């Protein structure tokens, strides 16, 4: 039984990763999960300088999920290089660094700082607000997405994954733009914009008013978008959005994903990633699947 998958020339021992922003750099979870069991750890977003994030409250529970408006709080690239990369290098797992920024130059600065670092891939978070374009996210306009993707690809030494926003009219237009600009892979979906109001206090549950919805509630949307993107482009896709167990993960693979990332479920069940690895192996044994890669896009049309 072969659980290995290869994405943009990088081979992973299995298709299960962590979703950025839900696992830190693994330090908080290493007491619960053997990081050696994971295909990859995808880090929390890293910026060129420390970001304080948004004011509190910035997390709210919702039916079937959660809203967050953390604002990509992070200590910046200097601390990440000195602290997080050495920690992750202790484990036999791939390292994917999520990169965030407020301008294209912010992204490029981080990408260049990582060029000589022992990390395997870069995941570019284009759901960040573009301060030079009236705060519209980099990933919400195809031309803007094409521009940032091509400029990052010109500087990056590692393969580049573009993480697509679902808050668009047509996900395939964005997938095609990223592919045309040279992206090596796509990951989707990021969170869906949502809102919650406390009716007793008549106040917004989040200080930011809106936040990113994640968790099981968004899974049907995520599966649909992965399926659409997989039929629109030829580059590999990492699927995510509401994965809670191995059955969910296999559903994404069948829809066209080559690998999956587990996000909000890490908060509810810190053992989730390892359990999903084991569950996929059990599924393969049950149905006589020799290579996990054979599941990608294998839904019967």
Helix content: 25-40%
What is the CA-atom radius of gyration, in angstroms?
Answer: 18 Å
Say what the CATH topology is: TIM Barrel
What share of residues are in beta strands?
A: 15-25%
Number of domains: 1
- SS summary, helix count: 8
Mean pLDDT across all residues, rounded? 96
Q: Could you state the order of secondary-structure elements as H and E?
A: EEEEEEHEHEHEHEEEEEHEHEHH
CATH superfamily: Aldolase class I
Q: Tally of extended strands?
A: 16
Which regions have little confidence, pLDDT < 50, spanning 5+ residues?
none
Q: What is the general shape? A: globular
**CA(first)-CA(last) distance:** 26 Å
Which class do the helix and strand fractions yield?
alpha/beta
Largest sheet: 8 strands, parallel
The name of the CATH architecture is Alpha-Beta Barrel
Could you give the order of strands across the largest sheet?
3-16-15-10-9-8-7-4
Short description:
With 301 residues, the protein is an alpha/beta fold.
Element layout with pairings:
Layout: E1 5-7, E2 10-12, E3 16-18, E4 40-42, E5 59-62, E6 65-68, H1 77-88, E7 94-99, H2 104-113, E8 121-125, H3 142-155, E9 160-163, H4 171-180, E10 185-188, E11 192-195, E12 197-198, E13 203-204, E14 210-214, H5 219-232, E15 237-240, H6 246-255, E16 259-262, H7 265-268, H8 272-287
Parallel strand pairs: 3-16, 4-7, 7-8, 8-9, 9-10, 10-15, 15-16
Antiparallel strand pairs: 1-2, 5-6, 6-14, 11-14, 12-13
Helix pairs in contact: 2-3, 3-4, 4-5, 5-6, 6-8
